[in-house]
Amino acid sequence: MDKPFTVGIVTVSDSSFSNNELDKSGPLIGEMISSSPGYKVVKKTIVPDEPAEITKVVKHWSDDLALEVVLLTGGTGFAERDQTPETVQPLLTRVTPGITQLLMNVSLTKTPMAALSRMTSGFRNRTLIVTLPGSPKACRENLEALLPILSHALDLVRNQRTRVQVTHAALASSHLPPGVTVHQCVHQHHHIPKHLGKTNDLNAPVTKRARQSPYPMISVDEAKQIIYKCTRSITSETMEVAQDLVGRVLDEDVFAKEPVPGYRASMVDGYAVIASDGPGIYPVTQVSVASGQDQTPTLQSGQIARVTTGGLVPEGADAVVMVEDTTLATVTEDGKEEATVQIHAENVCAGSNIRPIGSDCQKGDLVCTKGTIISTLGSELGLLASVGVTHVDVVGKPKVGVFSSGNELRELHAAQPLRIGEIRDSNRMTLMAAITQAGFEAVDFGILSDDVNHIRAAFQLALTKVDVIISTGGVSMGEADWIKPMLEQSLQATIHFGRVMMKPAKPTTFATIPRAHSDPCLAFALPGNPVSATVAFYLFVLPALRRMSGVIQYENTTLPVTIKHDIQLDSRPEYHRVQVQVQADGKLVATSTGSQQSSRMLSMSLANGLLVLPPSRPDKHVVLKGEQVQCMMVGSFQI
Ligand SMILES: Nc1nc2c(c(=O)[nH]1)N[C@H]1C(S)=C(S)[C@@H](COP(=O)(O)OP(=O)(O)OC[C@H]3O[C@@H](n4cnc5c(N)ncnc54)[C@H](O)[C@@H]3O)O[C@H]1N2
Ligand code: MOO
Ligand SMILES: [Mg+2]
């Protein structure tokens, strides 16, 4: 059985707020919902007829708690304090006039007085919000009308099936299509695209294209959060403990397979003794150089054994005396061996200079926890090797497909010289290198022409081969910018955002493309301008790839740097390319790489950091030489 739909109930009423006993509608709705299978009331509250209070609870329940339904009762009438509909309406990202009309129609069949109720309904992202009248009777009638369609409506949202996919059969039964699991669907889309207008129709002529972008401009932080919500780690795989494990993230707790040391080992070069024998001259009856042995020899009282550091301490011996605390007494006839040695050390304690079995690590001890990154320092690899762990489960790594798009693009290595209007495809070169350098597999899907069929076919192929697709070009307002409409109209993708308030890379687009037999594919449709594509890669794609491979420990590290000259601020928050250097006094100083045109790859090639500059304000147009600014490091320092 699917998990129940989560419901929150808000009673909006000044009087019920001051005396909770007066609230009859809230409990009634709670009872009706709770007694309907498939729902769970997870939140209930009473607020006064105050827009700020209503807004706070609706936003919190939908944005933070992600409830699937919020039902409000009260405040829908004509009294001056009745402000529920006008408070809720601006919070909605999509209205559902059909639901509002259904409720009104049902109410009107009961009484014409229903016309005096101002119900409203709609979605705030994935939360359905319905304002019901305040009277218990009207609430009951409305809910009776709503409940028969509610679960289907919520099912569509939860599973993100599109209108095309919703057949009458699907309406009659709430079962999912074959091959599609609830799990897949739930993770498929997290955000309903909030188009401000109509996206371009793939079949429409240029005369019909939108002249304003229908995609709202969101902040970089919002964009990152959206991406992270859609980002899931790749299924784990078992790998041999070896160098190529570096950078991988353990997907299991790992326990020692063997104790370390596995035998009583000497900590020093010297003589294994029986501590109670005390100082004196003793025959050297055994030699134990650190090496494999078939059995443990035994030492009798009155004997000593010569041992090396890490060598096996014979049975019976309980301490090792350092060679420095002994002298040679006699040698064998051939003069090649020690016959007897004098032990000078006094008051030797039992156990001294011996590492007992398992004293470094017991068999079964936890040595590495799930989530550990096998670091380049190699210490985790050494640890695993030391305790006999030969294989571990690690989080898989996403495969990344890369396209460039644009009729003007030519392969660098193409035989013919460029014709007028043509340029070299540099984006694939940059991105493939950056992906590989970051430790991910990059699959080259070549250059796409600005032809919708070509673009669609290439994406369809990539969907079968990779976990993440990065395309560049074709995402802005031009007549050949087909990527967004193609994603939505041909691949039923959800475009989670299509513009970000930043410079460069404003038209950065992020979508998830559903697939029948696996998780949705993440698609980053980056702008064509080479610098825009590169910055967007470091800012959005790389952290997502890392998360998919289980790395959540670090991303987009920023450091405070001192700028070496004035920099003009842009109206958009800007990622200004700089070269960061470490001064002799340890201070980090940043020099701009010059003109920041998003076409100018030179501004990127010299950079190892991106200054995170705020947008200009009337009182601040420039950051001055000597000011400290946060800088996102994308490369290493020249020290
Ligand atoms: N009317 C508007 N025009 C533009 C806007 C806008 O908001 N309104 N946004 C501008 C911004 S900002 C950017 S960034 C670009 C993004 O354009 P697209 O993503 O649609 O990319 P294209 O139009 O295909 O190409 C833009 C530019 O980049 C060159 N390019 C493309 N691919 C490559 C490649 N693989 N290697 C090297 N260079 C490439 C292409 O030739 C163009 O010069 O849109 C602005 N326009
Ligand atoms: O955002 Mo665009 O990337 O300025 O050039
Ligand atoms: Mg364009």
Features:
Molybdenum Cofactor Biosythetic Enzyme, Chain A; 6-stranded mixed beta sheet; 639 residues; binds molybdate ion; 5 domains; 35 strands; binds ligand LQZAQKY5; binds magnesium ion; Molybdopterin biosynthesis moea protein, domain 2; alpha/beta
Characterization of the model:
- The protein has a 6-stranded mixed beta sheet with strand order 2-1-3-6-5-4, with helices on both faces.
- Helix 2 crosses helix 6 and helix 5 packs antiparallel against helix 6 (136-159).
- 25% of the residues lie in helices and 26% in strands.
- It folds into 5 domains: 5-159, Molybdenum Cofactor Biosythetic Enzyme, Chain A, CATH 3.40.980.10; 206-232 and 397-548, MoaB/Mog-like domain (Molybdenum Cofactor Biosythetic Enzyme, Chain A); 237-259 and 360-394, Molybdopterin biosynthesis moea protein, domain 2, CATH 3.90.105; 265-355, Molybdopterin biosynthesis moea protein, domain 3 (Molybdopterin biosynthesis moeA protein, domain 3, Beta Complex); 558-633, Beta-clip (Beta Barrel).
- The chain starts with a strand and ends in a 6-residue tail after the last strand.
- The model is unreliable at 161-192 (pLDDT under 50).
- The protein has 639 residues and is of the alpha/beta class.
- Bound molecules: ligand LQZAQKY5, molybdate ion and magnesium ion.
- The site of molybdate ion has 8 residues, from loops.
- One of its GO terms (biological process) is Mo-molybdopterin cofactor biosynthetic process.
- Catalyzes two steps in the biosynthesis of the molybdenum cofactor. In the first step, molybdopterin is adenylated. Subsequently, molybdate is inserted into adenylated molybdopterin and AMP is released.
- Keywords: Magnesium, Metal-binding, Molybdenum, Molybdenum cofactor biosynthesis, Transferase.
- This is MoaB/Mog domain-containing protein.
